[in-house]
Design a protein that fits this description.
By secondary structure, the protein is mainly beta. It has one domain: Elongation Factor Tu (Ef-tu), domain 3 (Beta Barrel), CATH 2.40.30.10. About 5% of the residues lie in helices and about 50% in strands. It is built from one helix and six strands; from the N terminus they run ββββαββ. A six-stranded antiparallel β-barrel has the order 1-4-3-2-5-6. The chain is globular and about 35 Å long.
Length: about 110
């Protein structure tokens, strides 16, 4: 499988008052990315992801930040591309964003 990296602008959503605000450090593997297929928007897929933040500060609810999203899946380019909207998921919708570009891929598993 190939490892792909995409640049994206992401925002963590606010949580209900009865739930504690979750912060995610750079390099987190605690979030998945959900998105629709580029040419078939009714098809959706969840990708296990590693999310790296540019400034290494934790991502907290309400903040919008640039990030690199890394996925290891041969279907990645059919779902993730410039302008594609994504949802960050941790068992429930946790945030959202938009992909700006693909920046890298390698052969082999992570």
């Amino acid at each position: 499988m190939r490892r792909y990296k995409f640049r994206a602008l992401i925002t963590m959503d606010f949580v209900a008052q009865e739930q504690p605000a979750r912060r995610y450090s750079s390099g987190t593997r605690r979030l998945m990315v959900r998105c629709s297929k580029i040419d078939q928007p009714w098809l959706r897929k969840y990708f296990p992801a590693v999310i790296f933040l540019d400034d290494e500060r934790p991502l907290t609810p309400g903040e919008t930040r640039f990030a690199t999203i890394q996925v290891t899946d041969d279907d990645a380019c059919a779902f993730l591309g410039p302008g594609q909207q994504v949802t960050l998921w941790n068992g429930t919708d946790a945030g959202h964003g938009i992909v700006s570009r693909r920046v890298f891929f390698t052969w082999g598993a992570a």
